[in-house]
Structure formats: C-alpha cells, structure tokens
Amino acid sequence: MTQRAIILDRDGVILETVEGYLDNPNSAIFIPGSIDALCVLLSHDIPLGIATNQAGIATGKITHEQTAAIQRLIDGVLLDQTGRTFKAVRVCPHAKDVGCSCRKPKPGLLLAAANDMSVDPADCVYVGDHSDDWRAAINADMLPVLVRTGRGRTAELDIRSWYPGPFVRALTFDSLSAALPFLLDWTSR
Length: 189
Ligand SMILES: [Mg+2]
Ligand SMILES: [Zn+2]
Fold this sequence. Notes:
- Helix 1 packs across helix 2 (64-82) and helix 1 runs parallel beside helix 7.
- The protein is of the alpha/beta class.
- The mean pLDDT is 97.
- It has a single domain, classed as Rossmann fold (3-Layer(aba) Sandwich).
- The protein is built from seven helices and six strands.
- It is 40% helix and 14% strand.
- It binds magnesium ion and zinc ion (ZN).
- Magnesium ion binds at residues 9, 11-13, 128-130, 150.
C-alpha cells in the first residue's frame, strides 16, 4: 500500500483568518477542533504538511521570522500532545503579481510539500478554504477538500459555479474537524 498524506492550508483551516496579516503568535486563534483533528491524524501516523501563501512577506507587512514563530506555536501544541508534527512546511512569500511558480493556485508549493514528504502528489489530499486552494490541488494532481471555516463558504459558492456540483458536495465539510472521518478513511485506502 502506498503512503497517503494530507497537506493543509494554514489560515482558515487551522487558524482563524484575521483582518490584514497575522503577524504575531499571540494573535493566533485556533479554529475550534482543528488541533484535536490534527492530533488524531498524527496519532494514526498520517504524514501532514502545510502549504500557505503569505504574500505579506513580500509586501513587508510580515516577516519570515514572524511566520516561523506562528509555525513554532502550532508545532509546539502538536508536539506537546502527540510528540509529532508536520513533516513539510512550505510558505510562498511572494507577491501576487510577480509570477512565481509556487503561489497557489499554481501547484509548485503543494508539489514541494509532497516532495518533502516523499509522497506521490496523487496520494495527497489538499485541504483549503479558498477557491485558489481547490485550483492548486487540481493543478498538482491532488484531491481537493474544502472546509467552510475561514473563507470557505464564499469559496464553496465560487467553486460550484465552475466545478461539478456532486464532487464539490462530496468534498466539502463544515470544518477540519468535520472532515476527519473522511480524511481517516481516505488515507487508509
Ligand atoms: Mg486559507
Ligand atoms: Zn511563490
């Protein structure tokens, strides 16, 4: 059996989205149930990765160090509870308009995370809250999963206007926590 993995967007999936830019771990708020869901996945030995656009780095609104500090906060909570954490963390620090190959909806960031974990992209699900997350997953040959936290409710309406409804319905969940049974089942196949 090949190893299946889960890659996640950070803001709107694990952490609440904020107005402007999240620049301080003290301002980070975990979406209810997200840490518990990650702990369950880690306890099942499922490799987890993060792939997040942080254009605020390019525009000087946030620094690499602030982004790393927020990642350390998440890692610390998971390590405390399970002794494990993410196997891959990939951040696109580029501005929207510079045409880098990593910024979602391009597939580069997701492919790099899969490569870090030595898993085939086709054996990855990508969990996001934005239509660009869905597009990036498709572009990377990964299975898209949408959560309705963060900007997910708006994204759901958008995605349903250009992607077949039955697929969107089957792959959309109220939260990461609500997606947990699906994710456990999919990664065990
Ligand atoms: Mg997001
Ligand atoms: Zn980039």
